[in-house]
Specification:
The chain is α/β, with parallel strands linked by helices and 773 residues long.
């Protein structure tokens, strides 16, 4: 048995609908299953996902405030006013700033930009920067990807005489800033057909309105910001991202080539994963560790040398960021593990002095992955007496709404249902932890605190082909609320397993069912090699990829998780190097059992754990579910006592024997008759002195001759004194089987036959019969 890392929930699908979509749209059954899992109930709905076009793109003037914003910007152009684009320090904010800067420069505006420093100014509108803008002669401030929470700061800007246009997409509060214009896809609620644009999507809409046509040259920025900000990849966002990815693949901009070289990616193969795992983190890193403004200069660079230099700067910052994240994560985990109250909290709130506030959001995500609890990670600054940090949540705990309930101790915060940022006085950290835990009790059930994996596409081996995998890409881009499918392959067997990689930390398998086979790779899952036993039915969760080698293409399954529901038998019979096979056993969760004291003594030095000498007096309920059987019991009943009481998950069968009764065999009745006659003719026979010659003469093993002698002695047929054996006259006849040694040898032979010398399948069947009963 192998427990999956998460609780799987595999969706069952309508087979008739699968066949219908597959036939009507001429697509594979796998593609049909994905479309059904994404909510398609007929071919028309499915076709709308397969075909992404301009019909999904909306007129920017449908957005409230757009006409007023364009009028104000045109007045600024006509009057020669200075415009300031006020951005944000993440990838969405950097790309938003770049989009609007390009648009305003193209139409001849006197424009500059500023991005607040995460450490100096914090998130969103900053009074100091607004006052500096006024001093620099700025007449109009346009925020991108921020502003909706800047009530006091916007008030200051207006009092100074500057106008403010807010473009944002974050959750609005109950009170809105007194800006001249607010452009937000959800303000007022429902006015715009699509409310889930990223900040860069809103900036792109404003740019479109300024140009009077769709600015095709800005799509690549929209793709990066939209993917990096994890907004829902549905509706209009799908169109924006698809167009942006196509633009990135074909772009001649020096920064695109420089980014690909820095991240080790192929420009022609850029997709949403390239942006999400390589481009986005590098743009985010620059703002996490310092000023994000070099990110904008990079995206606007037209000189290859400048682009390469800035790409290296982004890359170096990303490497530095990874190291900092690793150090803080380890420190935070140590805090949690060493504080039982904290470990049992429904909402984890951890704080550390000097933690880099630019990366605590990543740390929070790691802690959510490890503990599956809403998590806040705060950086303590004793000099300023504040705690600043980020939060990540789980399904069922609307982070923004729960933080709103704590406005009295949270002077500055903002975010989404699943993520937020905040600043608060140090003295209120403990109160925030206490309050959020009480709030969580009201909205999180025990079931919601169990990490689940929603598997929406169960597949069979016969469905998996190169063509089917290539077809899946037609459904891209995948992302938030239109996730990449998670595939499940159930009840197959591992035809072969082997560890791969220089450290042997990866696993390669060949999966098979009755008719088909498939290669599978599990990165960092080499440990499973010793946990998957021969012939066992296993289920796997993961992704489908194409493995191309020397022009040949083969489908391949990338393993994310494995589950085995039945108990497993590991056959270590005949293994002589104890340390080798013991190393494959999970020592902590396994009991080593010896039925004989001499066996315990034999293995004591080789096994790094106390060996249990199992007798009738030992309570089997004290045993683990994993057991190693070091030797054979005296009889089947003793072993069956364990099997009947313990809920077995794994049995490691070693069955060490010093002398094999089965191998030496049971002497026949004729052997006993001949040997008795031999002894009768030789009173006071010295067996020890003559046993070797006797063995050669009669053709029986010396151990067998000793056994026959013991049987005669136990039945009273002979006496043994001072090593001399003499036949007793006039002894009543008795069956040989009445001798205790004869009974024990018969049992031993049967035990060895059933347990030691059986095939793997026969041994598994023997255990199955007893475990099932």
């Amino acid at each position: 048995m192998i427990q999956s890392q998460k609780v799987w929930k595999i969706e069952e699908q309508d087979e008739q609908l699968i066949k219908q979509l597959s036939s009507q749209l001429n697509i594979s059954s796998i593609a049909a299953k994905i479309l059904i899992a994404r909510g398609c109930e007929n071919s028309e709905q499915a076709a709308s996902i397969l075909k992404i076009d301009e019909s999904q793109y909306h007129d920017p003037f449908l957005m409230a405030g757009m006409e007023e914003a364009i009028t104000r910007i045109e007045d600024a152009l006509e009057n020669g006013e200075k415009i300031l684009v006020y951005g944000d320090y993440d990838a969405d904010g950097i790309t938003s700033t770049t989009v609007l800067m390009n648009a305003l420069l193209d139409i001849g505006a006197d424009v500059s930009f500023v991005i607040p420093d995460r450490f100096t100014h914090g998130y969103g509108p900053n009074e100091e920067l607004f006052r500096k803008a006024y001093a620099d002669g700025v007449n109009l401030i346009i925020t991108v990807d921020n502003g909706i929470s800047g009530i006091e700061q916007v008030k200051v800007a207006r009092e100074l005489g500057m106008d403010v246009i807010i473009t944002d997409h974050h959750e609005p509060g109950d009170v809105l800033p007194d800006a001249n214009v607010i452009i937000h896809p959800r303000i007022p609620e429902g006015h715009y057909p699509f409310g889930e644009l990223a900040g860069v999507g809103v900036a792109f809409k404003l740019a479109h309105a300024l140009y009077g046509e769709i600015p095709d040259h800005l799509f690549e920025y929209v793709a990066i910001g939209t993917i990096a900000d994890l907004v829902p990849l549905v509706g209009e966002n799908r169109y924006l991202v698809q167009r942006g990815l196509q633009a990135l693949q074909q772009s001649t901009n020096p920064w695109v080539k420089a980014m690909c070289e820095a991240s080790g990616t192929n420009q022609r193969e850029i997709n949403e994963e390239t942006v999400g795992f390589y481009f986005g983190p590098r743009l985010n890193a620059i703002g996490r560790l310092g000023s994000a403004e070099p990110g904008v200069h990079f995206l606007m660079s037209e000189d290859p040398l400048q682009a390469n230099d800035l790409a290296k700067q982004l890359n170096d910052k990303n490497t530095e960021r990874k190291k900092i994240v690793e150090d803080i994560s380890n420190e935070a985990i140590s805090m949690i593990e060493n504080n039982e109250d904290l470990k049992q909290s429904l909402v984890l709130v951890v704080a550390g002095e000097g933690w880099n506030p630019g990366v605590v959001g990543i740390v929070a995500s790691r802690l959510v992955e490890k503990y599956y609890r809403p998590t806040i990670v705060l950086s303590i600054n004793h000099e300023k007496e504040i705690a600043k940090g980020s939060a990540r949540s789980i399904e069922g705990f609307h982070l923004y709404n729960e933080l709103v309930k704590n406005r009295d101790i949270l002077p500055h915060f903002g975010g989404h249902p699943m993520a937020a940022g905040m600043t608060l006085p140090i003295e209120h950290v403990e109160a925030l932890r206490t309050r959020l835990n009480e709030q969580a009790k009201a909205c999180l059930s025990e079931e919601q605190l169990v990490q689940r994996l929603q598997i929406d596409v169960p597949i069979d081996l016969n469905e998996i082909t190169v063509d089917a995998i290539q077809e899946i890409r037609k459904l891209a881009p995948f992302g938030t609320e239109f996730p990449k499918p998670i595939f499940a392959i159930q009840n197959v067997k591992a035809k072969s397993l082997r560890k791969i990689g220089s450290a042997e930390n990866h696993l390669k398998m060949e999966l098979e069912d009755a008719y088909n086979s498939l290669d599978a790779i599990g990165f960092n899952k080499g440990y499973l090699h010793d946990e998957i036993s021969y012939g066992i039915a296993l289920s796997l969760v993961g992704d489908l990829q194409i493995n191309e080698w020397q022009g040949n293409k083969k489908p391949q399954f990338m393993v994310q998780d494995v589950r085995i529901n039945e108990w497993q038998l590991y056959d270590y019979r005949g293994k002589s190097q104890t340390s080798n096979w013991v190393a494959k056993v999970n020592i902590e969760k396994t009991d080593f059992i010896a039925f004989f004291k001499q066996t315990k003594d034999h293995f004591e030095q080789a096994i790094p754990k106390e060996i249990i000498h199992f007798t009738d007096e030992v309570n089997p309920l004290t045993l683990h579910k994993n057991i190693v059987l070091l030797d054979l019991p005296e009889n089947f009943l003793l072993l069956e006592k364990i099997l009947n009481k313990v809920q077995i998950e794994r049995i490691y069968a070693h069955f060490h024997t010093d002398q094999s009764a089965y191998f030496n065999g049971m002497p026949t009745r004729d052997h006993f008759k001949w040997y008795y006659g031999f002894l009768k003719k030789r009173p006071a026979f010295n067996l020890n002195e003559h046993i070797q010659k006797l063995s050669e003469h009669i053709g029986l093993n010396m151990e067998v001759i000793k056994f026959m002698t013991t049987v005669f002695f136990e039945l009273g047929f002979v006496t043994i004194e001072n090593g001399l054996t003499t036949v007793n006259e006039n002894v009543p006849k008795q069956a040989l089987s009445e001798a205790p040694s004869y009974k024990m040898r018969s049992q031993q032979i049967e035990l060895e036959q059933k347990l030691v010398y059986a095939t793997y399948s026969e041994l598994k069947q023997w255990f199955n019969e007893r475990l099932s009963s």
